[in-house]
Predict the structure.
Amino acid sequence: MVKIEDIPSMADDWKQVFERNRMVPPHSQTVRLAVESRFTQSHGFQLTLNRVTATHLPSQEKAVGEQSVTYQLRATLFDRNHQHFFGKTWKSSPQTIKNNKITFNEVLYVHTSLTLPSTLLVLELVSLSPRPDCSHQALGRGFTVLELFTNRPDTPAADGERRLNLHHGSPRALLHPLIKDAVDYHNMLKIIEGAHLACVLKKHPALDSVLHLFPENVLVSGEENIPGLVASPTGDALLKPQTLKTLPFTLNRLTISLQPSLEKFESQLLQLINADCQNTIQPGSDGAIRTVVIQERRLHVGVHNGWCFLEKPQVVVLETFPSGVRGRAGSPSKQSALRKDSSTSSLPQILGLRSSLELRLTNHQALAIIFQLEYVFSTPIGRETMLSATSTSRAAFLHSLRWGIWCPFQEPAEWKGEEIQLVLQGGAKPNPHGAMVYSTEVSAKAQSPAPISAPGTAQVSEAKDMIKFWLSSSLERKASSPKPSLRIKQEDVPRQRRSPSSPSQGRKRIPPASPPESPQGPGLSLSQLAATSRYPTISHSSSALPWQQSFPSLLHPSPLASAHQLSHVACSAVSNFAHLEMDLQQRGGDSASLHDEGDQLQELPFTPVHAPVITLGMNVPSSCSVSSRSSLAYLFSAGFPDIVDTSGQVADVLDPTEPLPFDPNREENDLQGNLLVFQFLAFTRIAAPGVGPDWPENIYFTFQFYRFPPVTSQRLKLLTGDKVQHKASNPLPCVLASINKDGTVNTGSPGLQLQFRVDDSFLKPGEKRWFLRYLALHAMHIDIWDSDSLLLIGSTAIELKYMLRQCKSAVQALHEVEVLTTDYVGEDTLLTNPDLGRHSASSPMTVHTIVRGRLHIRTGNIGCPADSGRKRPADVMQSLLHIITPCEVTSGFRGGSLSSRNILQLNARNTAQADRLPINEDRVPLFRRGIRADGVVPKENSLNKPDDSDRKLNCMAAVREREASEDAKTAKVAAQSKKAQLANPSEAKSKAESIANMLSQAITTQHLLYASLGSAEYMEFVLKNPFNVPQTVTIHSDDPELSVITNTEEWRYFKALTRTPTPLEENMFHSEQGAPGPRVYLRPKESLHVPLKYQSFLCDHTMALQGPSLKATARGSQVAKKNLSNIIAAKTIKVTFKAEDGKPMAICQVNVEPTPHVVDQTFRLYHPELCFLKKAIRLPVWHDPAAINPDTHVSVRCSDPNIICQTRMLAPGEPQDVYLKVPGSPSPHIKMFFVMVFTDKWMAAPSQIWQIYVHFLERVDVSCVTGQRSCQSLVLRGTQAIRKVKCFSSHPGEIEVDPAGVFVLPPAAVQELQLKVQPWQAGSRFLYVNAVDVEQQRLVTAWLLCLNVHRPVLSKAFEVCVPVGGGRGSSRKITYTNPYTSSRTFLLRSDHPDLLQFKEDKFQIGGGESYTIGLRFATSQSPGSVDILVYVNNLEEKTEETFCVKVNYS
């Protein structure tokens, strides 16, 4: 416990700053005039005082006896209209005179909103003569006036250098009445000949960032001590000001005790005020006794740096509590933070704060927290006030009673984890609020600085008014809190909302018996979800070894490069992502002044719900087998196909629970291809509240493997054995079976098998090691959907490292992983809570991870024999892959037709000499797409068929015959149209264009480029000057995605990355504004390398409609879609090198062929339609701060230009967030895009690629009570075609939709749906309703139900003991009496049907009669207690009575 007895000794530094910087406020009429003139924005200015020329003063050489005399400048603001000096007089450092000149070189800063012509700056020259007592005698030596503003406040009159004449006398002359009314007061002041001041005045916009650190109208220098400002090494901290970092702190458990007691203190206060009111009654009044009462008790809390408040002080409302009540630490946001007990009702009363306060503090010893206790009094209004009849009958006024100051960073800071006790002051003492504070003789004696007595002593005379509170760092609370919810401060909330001057706005008048509600603190963040990415994306253009590449974040290659061990915990230290929903909530409890009744109410937007992101870092799905032996026996008796190698032998079985020996070199040297197999075997249901035991019945999967297209499986049926006995404690897995188009179940081989073929013909040169690294470090994300309702069941992830063969013929592994989902649940709300309507906006949310089931999946990798007839791309890979060398054109045009075929044949010779890889002719279309047609093939297809030589010869003969026929047709057409060409001049023009096109093709060099999203592809074009004279060549690209690298540092980086052994030249390019491109100088016959870079951040976002695939499944395998989606567009880009005459010297034609990219992380977000989604994704902090690369530069890009995606650079070690702002779309649209995260300065390749899905739904708000049915209407609108629709809910046990079956939705029709909501869990929850086209299995509309569920009012409470262990349970009875006079039928409901069963769920009873309710409690296997609610409902499911039964299992 920290006790602060003497305020001045506690805060000497703050007190010194405060006393030194007290100021005189400006005239109130001037402030009002500035506000009426709309001069409310404060502007910063800089004034430089150079030197004073004073010929009237004796020089140092002439007056030997005055050598010790120094001179000083003093500056003060002056209001000419009201002849009022205001602000604070600034004094310069003393200077000596030399050659009749006094050099000051002082720089002053000031910010003000009084940009009026009447605002002047008065500067006085003062001589300082020493006295015998070491003091100085000041004598005025002249003054001058600087006019700061004109009638145009945006342009100061004295902007720039000024030379001001000095005047005789003192600045007090400006107070003369004649000067006040004078138009030109300069004529009334006598100028000192030869005396002037040189100064410079200009605006200083850099001051805008620190305006909150010192008040307006105060002249300060850069050397002043301003707490919160970073000291500058140059001495002038305001020239380029920087603020110290602020940290969030939470102030909670605040109580105030007044002496001798709260009741006596307030009683004495009211007696004095009432007596004063009686003495001031005007004669002639009605003489009625008007009692002043206390209406409200307020506390102002602000942060002060000795100059001013850093923010407007927060105003909170205090309530009275017994002195024995203590607050709960760690729960400042709950309404029960201060709990009352019946045993403490007789204790003395104290003032307390229910909620907590969020403060931002800077670690500076002169920073203080200021408390001011303020009471609101009300008094009746008499007839003499002449108020209208519509006004209130009582008038309110405010008065300050106590104030206190505490410096948290004063040495030593021992308050952490302790309660702070602070003495409050009263009386006429200077305080930061500038208010008169109440004080009496009794209270003055009580506030004497006597030591505080020990607890329990009865020394009333030594008691003091105290404030007690706890202060804790919000960052430490976040780090130590086990809850997933995170409290952060909302920076973009206006100060008027965070710091209300009156807490009564936005609320109805509350009866006096109910204490007023305290304003809520800062905003709340609803979730902190953790996710992990398995590995960073690698640029395929890099030739560095993946096992030696430096990994970003927390990824380390030690499991691969050092120990060569991949255990099930090898990657447990991978990077973690904390997903923070950006706070969109507006505080309903905050309020403004009493006069702001016209403010518009703000809607409370919905906070997005994040589906689970399953990775191996956190929230790891269990990959070990948890099923019993009987379940496994039942599973494998279904007859799943075995995974066998090419010789028919069963693949080696790997255990996912055991460490995996791994040798990278051995894996890379394996010459066989890989056929990767995924077998989805079964799904184990887990009982969940709100759904039936047979849910789900049909499912389907979505996932993406490596850079293959995304896979959406067909519908799969969950089959259960009829002859097998099911136990609730040990549910059996349901075997998956594919469903045919007609809805029947496929009776063939059970399960779903998908195969992906990855061999040397699929992989690009040098890509094999990256693919192996993908398998070693990646976990594939799988989403599991309900194929009937199209609702997301959950997600999981499987480790792919068990698909590494290590030169074996085939391997397989069986995984049993948990399917997880997340659910947002708010705090429980009592039905009688007066703040019922605002609870959903202010209650913190808790994120629960729910296990929806277990997925049984088998993975395998079969080695495929390599094709001996073709060379592997790695064998023919050239070292100069990135260099584009044009061919030497030695032969001219040999005549013939100008058809496109001959031009292409001419250009083919140019292409053949480029340093590119040889491409097999019969595979060009598929190879250019980056994926072979048999990239994903059924098991029955043959692999790598050898080419047929006879077929090639036949093809060549057919081609020659076709060319001969086309040449004959061309000659015939030319002879027939020769006469028409002579008559039509356009034909000659066409011939000229053909010749120009042919010449252009002759100097064109083509380059084939395989590019993926976000990865930069580097190349160098060898440009040669064929002329004998020097040339200045202009380089122009017709696509901005292909650019010239003009930065030497960037060029050096890409050359080192790609290991290109070519020369590098500094400052090679010359760029001019408005030029089509950079220019380069070439000497005669000189060749140089021009660096080029292609990089695209845009791609196709086309995605399939939500729903299972309608494609039939081949026996034992599933063929994935062949179309390439979500890749960059294929294009042809020309880079033209033009000589000085504007003609092209060379052309480089880059043919961009897209290849799919690898997705590292998948996010699914749900958000209301037509609303902006704001999302913050936290990047991982570095594992070892000492190993941080100082060149690391985190940047992000988004594939959709309409989405705002950005990040901010912070100090090393600080958390960094990626901010997203996504525009809304109508329901049920799904927006998909990619986010690329780069960790290198030049963004060569993304370290992470995130795929984000945003599901937009119609929002419906429902407020209801547990156990009681509430109805809500929805409107379903028809589309262009007739549809058969059925509605599904995510919790069928709590939501019923009417109509429940399939109904016809005509085109453009409107169908009303009735929702019957009967929840059993209190708090804020989110549920979903989908309208599905049952014929096409497509989503029509989706609704997001935002439930605010309250607890009911309990009628009775019971307690029962039930034995633990086996047995038949326990039976009890409750008597219920019908309160009606007529016979009624009642229904019995329970929120725990698994623990409590009724003898009869429905009974009928006559009027006034009694009925005995039979209760049967199930046994429990572990001791504990649970509260079970019993609802007595009528036939409309409206609750008549609610009983609470506390069951103790012992």
Summary: The first strand starts at residue 2 and ends at 4.
